[in-house]
């Protein structure tokens, strides 16, 4: 049986989060739900990647970065030219860049960003979950 993984993230300001995910990361809004005029839930897609944004009505805490990492995050796989393009859009938008474009020792060309509420997003060329020889 196949599986599909979708991330969901709660934001205090879901409108700003949707704008950032769209404008900086290049995702497109495919569905929204409003409650009393406020954005309660949005679904964004880029290729096979889907992110659901939900309104944070409970005050979840986001860890502070320790060096260049908050301890967990989301990973989006793109080609190298798009990694550079995301970096350019991120810096133009004033996004906190934890790691500027670099090639890791395992061959991943990546950047590490913090979204407007401090969650970490890794954008890179490495495709996880594919074994050697596949």
TrEMBL record:
Query: So which domain of life are we looking at?
Result: Bacteria
Q: Name one Pfam family in it.
A: Glyoxalase
- Name the Gene3D superfamilies on file: 3.30.720.110, 3.30.720.120
Every copy of the VOC domain together lies at: 1-126
Q: Which SUPFAM superfamilies match?
A: Glyoxalase/Bleomycin resistance protein/Dihydroxybiphenyl dioxygenase (SSF54593)
Q: Which InterPro entries match?
A: Glyas_Bleomycin-R_OHBP_Dase, Glyas_Fos-R_dOase_dom, VOC_core
Q: Which PANTHER family match?
A: BNAUNNG04460D PROTEIN-RELATED
Q: Can you say what this protein is called?
A: VOC domain-containing protein
From what organism does this protein derive?
Answer: Mycolicibacterium chubuense (strain NBB4) (Mycobacterium chubuense)
